[in-house]
Amino acid sequence: MRLTLTTINIGAPDPGALARFYARLLGWEIATEESDWVVLRDPAGGVGLSFQTEDPYVRPVWPSGPGDPQMQMHLEIMVDDLDAAAVWAKECGAVMAEYQPQDDVRVHLDPAGHPFCLWLG
């Protein structure tokens, strides 16, 4: 039996807009785009990202407290220059989170509010 993880699916209020954010951030191209479903493929052949409409959509809170909408997962993106990557993420439309738990990681929020980490590798 073979099991292969091919795509991580992210819920969003506007999957096209969020896919374009990640396409720009990562330098990937959109492989499939429909009104409620968009797919990005890793040009290196790794796991892709897909985005689907969530209605109603509730932005996660990070870090969350009791009763807050929690993130279900987050992306870890390895970088070789943490400061330059943080600037690039901001130029693409991300916001750096107020709370930063580690010196070698920068937590950002994508335009839909999903946290993702840039980490020095």
UniProtKB/TrEMBL annotation:
<protein>
    <submittedName>
        <fullName>Glyoxalase</fullName>
    </submittedName>
</protein>
<dbReference type="InterPro" id="IPR041581">
    <property type="entry name" value="Glyoxalase_6"/>
</dbReference>
<dbReference type="Pfam" id="PF18029">
    <property type="entry name" value="Glyoxalase_6"/>
</dbReference>
<dbReference type="InterPro" id="IPR029068">
    <property type="entry name" value="Glyas_Bleomycin-R_OHBP_Dase"/>
</dbReference>
<dbReference type="InterPro" id="IPR037523">
    <property type="entry name" value="VOC_core"/>
</dbReference>
<feature type="domain" description="VOC">
    <location>
        <begin position="4"/>
        <end position="121"/>
    </location>
</feature>
